[in-house]
């Protein structure tokens, strides 16, 4: 347990007492403005019009992974090639919108707005979800809607300022309907709900998909959630807490009798796979961060910190992004930020 030093005393946040050392000075280094921006916002509680926060947010557009992603963007708003943008992983259009939001990019930037608008025009299925199309000039067919992809994209789009967009609202409703089964008269081979059932998981409930969907619905403010969305959140929380998140022995199809090893490799950015920490992050966001059933998982995450209060990136997508963010297994500001954010949320936003 760390001793309160100058920096820790200045911030006076209770979650720091769980760490072996104070990582805040490292996370606040001006050399990585995107990390600095999210540290100020999510760990120190700075508001959007705070001058220091605004400077870091602006600097992130010109330095680091956000700048690298935006420099590869086509003037029409897409990456790689026109169309729905799922492929190639992880440099296609859909992934850039997901990653830009995770990196804390400024959603008011015209380039990012162009990307979000492009996705909404080219990747949404008629019912409201998002999917994959083989055609560059036609949207995905109804059968192409994917729970995990829609969850990732809705979370990103809301985070980038699109909550009020009617198309995003339709996607939120689609997620809630698929999860609960209410109002859905047909399921397809991949999205074969309810309760997160997926064709890629032999039609069993998919916990990776559940985490992505709950992450999206958590972004809808409680006062804005319809009864159906509230029910989907309740159902999702019950499913994720039906197993010990530290063990992650959720249903696995095709004869698999052990959890996927990726659950236990903390990483950043977060694409298709899910880890124990993301499960905890989402449970925190929907109000279950202090649930006793999450205690073992929180202890496991804490056990992975080094003596300096830092975590390593075990799943960094090295060589798959427009710009590598971390070397594999290297101390990671991004994973450390994720772990600290979860701790802050699980102990109360102000460390109470």
Supply the key terms.
352 residues, mainly alpha, Glycosyltransferase, two-stranded antiparallel sheet, 42% helix, disordered N terminus
Morphology:
globular
CATH class: Mainly Alpha
Overall helicity: 40-55%
Number of domains: 1
Q: Low-confidence spans: pLDDT under 50, at least 5 residues?
A: 1-10
SSE pattern, N- to C-terminal = HHHHHHHHHEEHHHHEEH
Rg on CA atoms, Å: 19 Å
Task: Characterize the main sheet.
Answer: 2 strands, antiparallel
Based on helices, strands and strand pairing, what is the structural class?
A: mainly alpha
Q: How many strand units?
A: 4
CATH topology: Glycosyltransferase
Strand order of the largest sheet: 1-2
The CATH architecture classification is Alpha/alpha barrel
Number of helices: 14
User: Whole-Å distance between the termini?
Assistant: 17 Å
Q: Averaging pLDDT over every residue, what do you get?
A: 92
Task: Describe the protein's architecture and organization.
The protein is an all-alpha fold and 352 residues long. The protein has a single domain, classed as Alpha/alpha barrel (Glycosyltransferase), CATH 1.50.10. 42% of the residues lie in helices and 2% in strands. The protein has 14 helices and 4 strands. The protein has helices at residues 6-11, 24-27, 33-43, 51-59, 65-71, 93-102, 110-122, 147-159, 166-180, 207-218, 227-240, 276-285, 295-303, 333-346, and strands at residues 197-198, 204-205, 311-312, 331-332. It has a two-stranded antiparallel ribbon with strand order 1-2. A two-stranded antiparallel ribbon has the order 3-4. Helix 3 (33-43) packs parallel to helix 14, helix 8 packs antiparallel against helix 9 (166-180) and helix 12 (276-285) packs across helix 14.
């Amino acid at each position: 347990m760390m001793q309160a030093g100058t920096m820790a005393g200045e911030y006076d946040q209770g979650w720091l007492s769980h760490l072996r050392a104070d990582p805040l000075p490292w996370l606040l280094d001006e050399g990585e403005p995107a990390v600095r921006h999210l540290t100020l916002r999510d760990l120190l509680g700075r508001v959007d019009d705070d001058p220091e926060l605004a400077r870091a947010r602006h600097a992130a557009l010109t330095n680091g992974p956000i700048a690298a992603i935006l420099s590869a963007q086509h003037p029409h708003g897409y990456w790689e090639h026109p169309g729905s943008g799922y492929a190639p992983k992880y440099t296609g259009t859909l992934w850039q919108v997901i990653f830009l939001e995770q990196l804390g990019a400024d959603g008011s930037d015209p380039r990012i707005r162009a990307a979000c608008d492009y996705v909404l025009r080219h990747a949404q299925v008629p019912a409201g979800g998002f999917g994959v199309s083989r055609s560059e000039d036609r949207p995905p067919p109804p059968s192409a809607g994917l729970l995990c992809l829609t969850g990732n994209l809705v979370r990103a789009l809301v985070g980038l300022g699109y909550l009020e967009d009617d198309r995003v609202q339709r996607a939120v409703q689609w997620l809630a309907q698929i999860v609960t089964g209410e109002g859905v008269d047909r399921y397809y081979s991949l999205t074969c709900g309810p309760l997160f059932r997926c064709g890629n998981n032999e039609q069993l409930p998919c916990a990776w998909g559940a985490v992505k969907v709950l992450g999206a619905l958590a972004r809808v403010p409680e006062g804005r959630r319809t009864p159906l969305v509230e029910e989907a959140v309740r159902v999702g929380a019950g499913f994720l807490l039906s197993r010990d998140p530290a063990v992650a022995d959720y249903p696995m199809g095709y004869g698999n009798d052990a959890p996927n090893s990726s659950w236990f490799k903390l990483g950043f950015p977060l694409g298709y796979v899910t880890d124990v920490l993301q499960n905890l992050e989402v449970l925190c966001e929907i109000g279950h961060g202090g649930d006793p059933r999450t205690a073992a998982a929180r202890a496991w995450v804490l056990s992975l910190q080094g003596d300096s209060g830092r975590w390593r990136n075990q799943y960094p997508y090295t060589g798959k992004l427009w710009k590598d963010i971390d070397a594999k297994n290297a101390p990671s500001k991004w994973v450390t930020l994720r772990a600290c954010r979860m701790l802050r949320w699980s102990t109360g936003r102000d460390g109470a």
